[in-house]
Every structure is written in C-alpha cells, then in structure tokens.
Amino acid sequence: MHNNLEITTLGGGCFWCIEAILKELKGVEKIVSGYTGGTVPGRPTYKEVCSGLTGHAEVVQITFNPEIISYEDLLLVFMTGHDPTTLNRQGGDVGTQYRSVIYYHEETQKTTAMAVLEKVSPYYENPIVTELSPAEVFHEAEDYHQDYYNNNSTQGYCSAVITPKLTKLRKIHADKLK
Known about the structure:
The longest helix is centred in the last third of the chain and has 17 residues, at about 155-170. The protein contains six helices and eight strands, in the order βαβαβαβββαββαα. Helix 1 runs parallel beside helix 6 (about 155-170). It has a single domain (about 5-175), classed as Peptide methionine sulphoxide reductase MsrA (Peptide Methionine Sulfoxide Reductase, Chain A). The protein is globular, with a radius of gyration of 15 Å. The strands form two sheets. Strands 7-6-1-3-2-8 form a six-stranded mixed beta sheet, covered by helices on one side. The protein is α+β, with helices and mostly antiparallel strands. It has helices at about 15-20, 45-50, 70-80, 105-120, 150, 155-170; strands at about 5-10, 30-35, 55-65, 90, 95, 100-105, 130-135, 140.
C-alpha cells in the first residue's frame, strides 16, 4: 500500500451491497465490513446490530488512493449505489442499522461530502436523508461478512439485490471500474 491512502467509512443499507459496489472501483485498495456509530460499549455482534438496539450502522471502511479515485467520485458512486432518500431503510432492510450515512475522517471530507450531497440532491424526487457524522470507533464485522458477495454470489439475497446494483454501477460508472 501507498503512504498517500485515505480512509472513509460509509453506510447505505446492508454492508454486503456497498462493499460489492465499491470494491469494483479503481483506486479502492481495501474494504472492510463492520459497525460504527453505536451507543453500547464493547464490540457488537451481527445479531446485536441487527436487533437495532445497539445504535450501530452496518458500514464499510474503505482505504482508497485519492490519486486514482477522488473522494468526491467515491461518494458519487456510493450515492448512486443505494437510495439516500429512505430513512433507516434500504429496500426490505429496515432499521437504524441500515441508515444512509457518511462518516468523515477529517474536515476536508466533511466539506466534500456536503458538496456531493448538494450536487446529487436534484436527481432525487425525495429529500436526501443521508447522515453526515464524524468517524467513530469502527468494529470489524465477523469474517463471514467480508467479501460476502464474491463468496456467496449465487445466494438468493445476492442475486436478487446485489447483482442488479452491480449491473447499474457498471452502466453508470464504467469509467471508474477496475
């Protein structure tokens, strides 16, 4: 890895979807699925986060090379990879753990994120509800959640929900793919 890499943390529903989409981008060096933004102490489990009682969001932590993909472009892909207008929900996934959220790691990321949200807003019929918050403690998800789509692409949820999102990504953002 290079010294000039940056990290960001994003949540847009199920982390399997966001991981699968962003993993395809040039400049994305590493993606780790996990949980952040919760109010209970200790390391949460998937079952605890799914209960909606911990306050955590399902997120991915992305290590990327800003010389290959800008933070703005990364966020633009993220914003088109989920529905940022549904509060605490993505499709059939309902609960605060599925909220649309950008956790910024530095003030420049916050400024860029605010500009991206403003830029994409006119493209949506409903108001964007994406939360913008400072990065908090990140807890890596259990091993079986890492690279979930690539390891389980024939599973029902993957073929019904993630595969169509990847098809959309490949059409809209073909120039940014590996």
